[in-house]
Every structure is written in structure tokens, then in C-alpha cells.
Specification:
- By secondary structure, this protein is an alpha/beta fold.
- The chain folds into two domains: 155 residues, Alpha-Beta Complex (Quinone Oxidoreductase, Chain A, domain 1); 130 residues, NAD(P)-binding Rossmann-like Domain (Rossmann fold, 3-Layer(aba) Sandwich).
- 24% of the residues lie in helices and 27% in strands.
- The strands form three sheets. Strands 3, 4, 5, 6, 7, 14 and 15 form a seven-stranded mixed beta sheet that branches.
- Helix 2 packs across helix 3.
- It is globular.
- It starts with a strand and ends with a strand.
- Bound molecules: NADP nicotinamide-adenine-dinucleotide phosphate (NAP).
- The site of NADP nicotinamide-adenine-dinucleotide phosphate has 30 residues, from helix 1, helix 2, helix 3 and strand 9.
Length: 314
């Protein structure tokens, strides 16, 4: 089968097309004919080996954790899928191998794709959608009426987080550049802070929950605008943030929690239901063909996508 892979760490130019054997599913896995995948920052961070927390990938490495497509074959212990089903799934971040014509994924990391989305587009949902859902609901304990601040609101995770926070009845303040202000308002944000104009955070009422997707400011900037028992949820566990999180309980009721996204079928089902109910939609910033994966990585690395970067597999 055709796949995109790299054999050395480095820039997007390391990504090349290759003919590789089609993978075989184990007893708990599904073999999927891939319709779409999407680029997440972790894909190029792994390729660059940036960050001490990332374990190296094995070479040659086929990147990609997000998968949508049709089931071709099921392992002997699979119970929820049969050949022909439309699914979306989050494969392992290190071994995902979604950037190929076929991929295998664990049954417990897959769900039926939303019926109201083109199959390829369902690949925009898994990793970023699960991160937004698990961060707000499980770590943030989001509740109706809360004031929520989302830093990085226009990006892959952020644009889902705005919609999920609104679904939970929160009042949402989105932080993004001015050129994306209308975009995040269209997703439901009540207030927009343009970080290119205003360096300090503003507050009408203290924030109960801060979702921090872009580490730019020290945590004390958030604490200055937060409720006394407010929670910061961050997707980026930097050394200084982890240290602050450990020491904070001795001096404050505020809490800092870190997301490690988990591939859970029940949460994918939740995303599917929100989509089908019209409460959640992936916005595709740009679509690339599989052969253009290097360009898709380079675009993601610029860090200014509005919504998701989709890769379609014909
Ligand atoms: N720990 C985990 O489990 C986990 C899971 C998923 C993601 N992550 C991490 O979370 C981060 C966000 O992921 P993502 O997929 O949302 O990334 P992304 O799609 O690349 O985010 C791009 C967005 O960042 C915004 N941005 C850039 N600088 C900003 C700033 N100073 N203030 C506010 N917004 C800014 C851009 O908006 P403008 O163009 O308007 O500037 C753009 O819309 C990544 O570092 C990723 O690796 C971690």
C-alpha cells in the first residue's frame, strides 16, 4: 500500500512517499481503508523530537493518529464493528500510522463516524475533539453558568473547546488574533480578546475555568483574573507549570491540571452525538492530499490554522 513516512528526525522534507506492506489486525483491532486523517501538532513535534516528554518514534515512522474510513477486516475478538462500517478513531500517537491507504486501530479507540459528516472530514475530530472534551469535562469540571477562558481558541483543540463549552452552558471568552475574532464568535464565543492588541487578560467576572492551549504567559497572569477556587487546565506541561501545579495546593484553592488525551470509544461516541445533534462541527482550515503531507506539516508548524488541517486519502 501507499504511505507517507520518514526515516530520520528533522524538517517536513523528511516525509516521503513509500510502498509498504498493508498492516494486519490483531484480535482486538480493525483494519481500516483510510478516507481521511488530520495533522496535530504532536505529529510534527515527534518528527522534530521536540520536547523531553516525547518518547522517540520507531523508524521508518508513518505519522498520524486521527483516522476516518471504512472497516475492511475485524480481529477475532472485535464485537462492535463489521466490514463496511464507517468509523472514526484515535490511534496511538507514536505508532498511529494513519497517513497511509490502510491502517489498524484498536476497537476501544474507535466509534461509528457521525452520519452527518463526509467520512474524510470525520478525521478532523478524534485527537483534538477528545482533548477539548476531556480537558473541559473531566479535568475542568465545566458547569452551566461558569466563566471560561480559552487561550488558543481558534486552533484545532480550541475551536472544538469553544463549541463544547457553549454546549455546557458556559460563558466563553476566547483568546486569539484579531483575524480570527469573527471565526470564534461564529462558533459561539461571547467575548474575544485579541492577543495582538492586548497583552494583559481582561475580566468582567473572574474565570472559573481557564483552558490554556498556547503557553505564552506565566500562570500568575491567569491567577490574577480567576475565581478563588478556579481551575487552569493546560495541554502543555512545561517544567515551570508542573512545578507551580505541585506547589499551588499549599498556598491557594486554585488548581492546575494537565491533559493527556485518551483514546476512549465512549468519548468518541459523545463527539459523534454532539455532531449529529448540530452542537459540534469540525471546521477545516485547509485540505491536503496524502502526497502533500509534508506541506500539511509545514502549514501546521506555522501555528495559525483556524480549525483543523485535513489530509484526504484517495
Ligand atoms: N497534552 C495533550 O494531550 C494534548 C492534546 C492535544 C493538543 N496538545 C497541544 O495543545 C496545543 C494546541 O493544539 P492545537 O491542535 O489546538 O494546535 P493548533 O491547531 O496548531 O493551534 C493553532 C492556533 O493557535 C493560535 N495561537 C497561536 N499563538 C497564540 C497566542 N499567543 N494566543 C492565542 N492563540 C494563539 C492560533 O490562532 P491565531 O492564528 O489567531 O494566532 C491558531 O488558531 C499544541 O501545542 C498541542 O501539541 C496537547
Amino acid at each position: 500500500m501507499r504511505a507517507m513516512q520518514y526515516r530520520h528526525f528533522g524538517g517536513p522534507d523528511q516525509i516521503m512517499a513509500a510502498e509498504v506492506p498493508t498492516p494486519r489486525p490483531t484480535a482486538t483491532q480493525l483494519l481500516v481503508k483510510v478516507a481521511g486523517t488530520s495533522v496535530n501538532p504532536v505529529d510534527w513535534k515527534l518528527r522534530r523530537t521536540q520536547g523531553l516528554l516525547y518518547r522517540p518514534v520507531p523508524f521508518p515512522s508513518i505519522p498520524g493518529a486521527d483516522i476516518s474510513g471504512k472497516v475492511v477486516e475485524v480481529g477475532g475478538q472485535v464485537t462492535r464493528f463489521k466490514p463496511g462500517d464507517r468509523l472514526f478513531a484515535m490511534a496511538s500517537v507514536r505508532f498511529g500510522a494513519a497517513c497511509a491507504e490502510y491502517a489498524v486501530v484498536e476497537e476501544q479507540a474507535a466509534a461509528q463516524a457521525p452520519a452527518n459528516l463526509p467520512l474524510a472530514e470525520a478525521a478532523a475530530l478524534p485527537l483534538a475533539g477528545l482533548t477539548a472534551l476531556q480537558s473541559l469535562r473531566d479535568l475542568g469540571g465545566i458547569a452551566a453558568g461558569q466563566h471560561v477562558l480559552i487561550g488558543g481558541a481558534a486552533g484545532g483543540v480550541g475551536h472544538f473547546a469553544v463549541q463544547i463549552a457553549k454546549h455546557h452552558g458556559a460563558h466563553v471568552t476566547a483568546v486569539c488574533s484579531g483575524k480570527h475574532a469573527e471565526f470564534v464568535r461564529g462558533l459561539g464565543a461571547d467575548v474575544v480578546i485579541d492577543y495582538t492588541l492586548r497583552k494583559e487578560l481582561t475580566v468582567e467576572r473572574p474565570y472559573d475555568l481557564v483552558l490554556d492551549l498556547i503557553v505564552r504567559a506565566p500562570l500568575r497572569d491567569f491567577f490574577a483574573v480567576m475565581a478563588p477556587a478556579g481551575v487552569v487546565v493546560s495541554t502543555l506541561p512545561t517544567f515551570s507549570r508542573v512545578s507551580t501545579a505541585l506547589l499551588l495546593p499549599f498556598v491557594s484553592r486554585r488548581r492546575v491540571r494537565f491533559t493527556m488525551v485518551k483514546a476512549r470509544a465512549a468519548d468518541l461516541d459523545q463527539l459523534r452525538m454532539l455532531c449529529e445533534a448540530g452542537k459540534l462541527r469540525p471546521v477545516i482550515d485547509r485540505t491536503f492530499a496524502l502526497a502533500e503531507l509534508a506541506a500539511a506539516h509545514a502549514y501546521s508548524q506555522q501555528g495559525h490554522a483556524a480549525g483543523k488541517i485535513l489530509v484526504t486519502v484517495k
